[in-house]
Design brief:
The chain is mainly beta. The chain is built from one helix and six strands, in the order αββββββ. It has a three-stranded antiparallel β-sheet, with no helix packed on it. β3 and β4 form a beta hairpin.
Length: about 100
């Protein structure tokens, strides 16, 4: 069974987590990308954290998971534009726990 109190605490920590991301600028023969690290003040299982990349219109472009050992993620971007990153804890899948920026 899932400890919902623990999950809620984890979600709160994810909401206030320090998220770093860095766009990679490239020439025509290189892939653009967005990546970074999910960080938390308390120990969390990073393999339960997923990241989705959406267009401004709400279309899902890419989905990935954090590296289980350090919270690193990377997503290739094939088209330049404005995107929304959303973070989800897989144990409950509640959309209200997404981070947007």
């Amino acid at each position: 069974s899932i400890n919902m109190a623990g999950c809620k605490a984890t979600f709160c920590l994810l909401i206030f987590a320090i998220i770093s991301r860095f766009p990679l600028f490239s020439s025509a023969d290189e892939v653009l990308g967005c990546g970074g690290y999910v960080r938390s003040d308390v120990e969390i299982n990073y393999s339960n954290v997923g990241i989705k990349l959406y267009t401004k219109q709400g279309n899902l472009k890419y989905e990935t998971e954090c590296a289980p050992n350090n919270g690193y993620y990377f997503m290739p971007l094939y088209d330049k534009g404005h995107y929304i990153l959303k973070f989800l804890h897989y144990l409950t899948g509640l959309p209200s726990t997404w981070l947007e920026f």
